[in-house]
Write a structure and sequence with these properties.
5 helices; 122 residues; 53% helix; 3-stranded antiparallel β-sheet; UDP-N-acetylmuramoyl-L-alanine:D-glutamate ligase; single chain; mainly alpha
Length: 122
């Protein structure tokens, strides 16, 4: 994608051409399989200040793939979970150090009703 920010259209074309699911994190996360597109507006700026947030998101995608056969749904669910957890964790910390611990605890305690109530997915 030539070093520029991908558009929804270029993301869809890439996913379709490669026959893959693409989960792209950013201010708004995008998930595409070339046909479907999910936009996820959850998350917090502190997530970019902590090492391994991408690794944690990837681990959540893998966990979701273990129980959801549709990879597009699994990826969207995982990115929604980590985004919601990031928002909840950020509300009770003073900076990136305490945030790193708080997001783990928040993911551990995240329940379905909270996730559904806070999800900003289109």
């Amino acid at each position: 994608m030539s070093g520029s920010e991908p558009t929804r259209e270029t993301l869809a074309v890439y996913a379709r051409d490669k026959k893959i699911i693409v989960g792209l994190s950013g201010a708004t996360d995008l998930v595409s399989d070339g046909e479907r597109l999910a936009t996820i507006a959850n998350g917090h700026a502190l997530m970019a200040k902590v090492t391994a947030m991408g690794c944690a998101a990837s681990a959540l995608v893998a966990a979701c793939l273990g129980v959801e056969p549709d990879a597009w749904h699994a990826t969207a669910a995982a990115l929604t979970m980590i985004g919601v957890a990031g928002e909840l964790a950020a509300a009770k910390v003073n900076g990136p150090g305490s945030f790193a611990v708080a997001i783990i605890d928040t993911l551990y305690n995240l329940d379905g009703p909270t996730l559904i109530a806070r999800a900003k997915v289109n």
